[in-house]
Amino acid sequence: MQEPLRLLLSDAQAVDSIEFVEEARLARWSSEADSRGLSLTIRGLRKSFGDNEVLRDIDLHIPSGQFVAIVGRSGCGKSTLLRLIAGLDQPTAGHITFGEQTRPEDIRIMFQEPRLLPWARVLSNVEVGLGSQRKSADAKARAEQALVEVGLQEKRGQWPAVLSGGQKQRVALARALVSRPRLLAFDEPLGALDALTRISMQRLLERVWHEQSFTAILVTHDVAEAVALADRVLVIEDGRIANDVTIDLKRPRERGSAELAGLEGAILRDLLQGADGTTDL
Amino acid sequence: MSLIESLPRLRTLRLPRADGLIQWIVPLLILLIWQLACSSGFVPSRVLPAPSDVVLAGWKLLLSGELVRNIWVSFWRASVGFAIGGGIGFAFGLANGLSSLSNKLSDTTLQMVRNVPHLALIPLVILWFGIDEQAKLFLVALGVFFPIYLNTLHGIRTVDPQLIEMGRIYGMSNAELFRRVIFPGALPSIFVGVRFALGIMWLTLIVAETIAASSGLGYMAMQAREFMLIDVVVLSILIYALLGKVADSTARLLERLTLSWHPAFQNGED
């Protein structure tokens, strides 16, 4: 217990004392130094597009290695928040700071669409994810390794056009994973998949998150998915964090269990109440 | 007839050779009917010579070296004109697709020029260049410029912006983004432009050579008309058809080699 604690003291100055215990818990299974998750602090974040204020005054701390799900109705600003975290857009006010110095390869985002290059074979598509290390000698080996992680090594020489929707999304996941990111943002990556493929993709996401212990931020409209995967669910309403729910259930979680259903119901009631003032489901 | 009986058998075999032969059945059939119509006297030879007479005329011209020289001259004009006009069109398409400043500067002008039929410039071109090589090259280049320009521009404009965003997120430099995302994305559209341009290339060359030239296939046809050598006139027309087919097949081959990722080219159909 001494060893991880000492390691944490050195790089956790920015972390509040409340999160310290959580940090220690997560640090236990982060073996490699460069695969530890990034912690994230957001202060007074605002974003407007013209007169339309999408995010108003977000304050948030996400400790290293946490799996956070962000839920909310369409247009509540959850995807905007994710794009700001991933650095795709600039905030109107406020700032986002990471616990440590980051390289561009440390933060990756995965979209609802796989966004694969149709004219590149599966393996080359994964190599794209290496960023500035694309030209290094072990690029191909690392891409192959990432394909093994998502179980698609036998498709390495295929064109994306011949893959199914779920397989394309797994290639996109391999591309996001290949640079060993420390923060992975998911923008409804399973939204376009059928129910069974979704469940196996959720298991895959949980597994790679567990193995590589990056910080995961998942935007989803599916509350069941959020409570099944996340350590913590943030409910966003009208550009603010309306609710912050800790899901303290042990993994692997059983789909359809009473505890999950109870949490899902509570969050859904909350969302619908905020929407039209009724508690009917 | 044995030819028709063998058709379904060839199809079920699905040999690439057999597939390649099927497309020639109709031209050969036409040739056969043509030959029969002429040799039976149904069509007088002053109206249309028999294919055998055309082949004979071709053989004579081949022996005298005239045919090869004229084909070579026409082929040279077509390819050099195509390279110049296509190259400039491609460059403008790239520049205007990638830079909005360049587009604002030149697109309106180019669209105005585009609406002038380039063959309407023949009198002016003859005044400028006489009937030298430059005149033909200028017209061919002008003709192929627009289809290649427009389709390159369109191809670059319609590259999926989500893929471009993806490339930027994964740290591609501008050069890399162009090489890995924008150019391959624009390529199908560029090929459409190339195939349009090939058609315009031959059309322009025929017109230019029949009006103002002292060599080439079009000139050969015009000379033959003066001497009432109708077999040579028909020969020239047939050679144009063959050269056009060769150019189109080359474009298709290139298309199939570079667009093998595209679902439309994955079954290897023609």
TrEMBL record, chain B:
Residues 67-248 form the ABC transmembrane type-1 domain. Gene3D superfamilies: MetI-like. One of its GO terms (cellular component) is plasma membrane. PROSITE patterns: ABC_TM1. Signal peptide: none annotated. Keywords: Cell membrane, Membrane, Transmembrane, Transmembrane helix, Transport. The chain crosses the membrane at residues 21-43, 71-94, 115-131, 137-156, 177-194, 200-220, 227-247. Its main location: membrane. One of its GO terms (biological process) is alkanesulfonate transmembrane transport. It is a multi-pass membrane protein. SUPFAM superfamilies: MetI-like. It is found in: Cell membrane. It holds the Pfam family BPD_transp_1. InterPro entries: MetI-like, MetI-like_sf. CDD domains: TM_PBP2. Probably part of an ABC transporter complex. Probably responsible for the translocation of the substrate across the membrane. Belongs to the binding-protein-dependent transport system permease family. This is Sulfonate transport system permease protein. It comes from Rhodopseudomonas rhenobacensis.
